[in-house]
Amino acid sequence: MTFIKSALGGVRAAALFLVTAASLSYASTSFADNATLKIGTATSPQIDALKVAVREAKEQGLDVKLIEFTDWNTPNAALANKDIDVNYFQHIPFLENAKKQGGYNFVAIAPGTIMKIGLYSKKVKSFDQLKDGATVAIANDPVNGGRGLLLLQRAGLIKLKPGADYRATTLDIVDNPKHLKIVQLEASQLARSLDDVDLAQGYPSFIKLAGTADPNSALLFDGVENKLFAIQWVVRPESVNDPRIRKFITIYQQSPAVRAALDKAFGTLYAVAW
């Protein structure tokens, strides 16, 4: 460096350093563009459509590794630890809660599908058949649990305090005429609770995966109109413009084969949000 400064002068040396740094940065970016894209998702029938997109991406020169997680906490931890580049399993309310609780700095960059949720039972065929003191299972996370309570309110089984939204908790219940015993379970495990409870909040994707009931057999569904609950493609801030991620999302959103796989997996139980 002393030789360079003496030969070129301090200003020219600084300029040379900047050019070199820029060149190294460009080379690093080019390498990243060709690196394997790692996508994390929670295990569900969504995986079939994602695998179709992975195959189409490979045909277009983009190498993608799909990583399945069995719970709804690890995909965010893996993204924060840079074990994956993007995850696809959560909607905005869930993401905002995860950011608050985990201190994550994540960005949702594109929507995916909106999935219905429902109230399922293997013991009754209508809500009026529920006995006094019946056991009802809802999700145990702050967002999806609230969504379940809103559905119970729509069914006429409970009443929440005025203004309650998806952030509602059991403390917001102001009327419970059937004295329902509400238990809270991890959302991905609700499908397997149907033999043990009288009524359960359920996600058609997990119901189908578990094989515990017909995904279409819910006594009541919520709608797919609210894009607030669309699954999001979530990244770290520095990856917002990663061309690999953008290319994969485009493939996923525009591929007829991906849409066919979603139709096969979910029928009328989903909608697209893009």
Automatic annotation (TrEMBL):
Keywords: Lipoprotein, Membrane, Palmitate, Signal. InterPro entries: Lipoprotein_NlpA. The keyword Ribonucleoprotein does not apply. Transmembrane segments: none annotated. The keyword Lipoprotein applies. SUPFAM superfamilies: Periplasmic binding protein-like II. GO terms for cellular component: membrane. It is found in: Membrane. It is a lipid-anchor. It comes from the Bacteria. Residues 1-32 form the signal peptide. Belongs to the nlpA lipoprotein family. This is Lipoprotein.
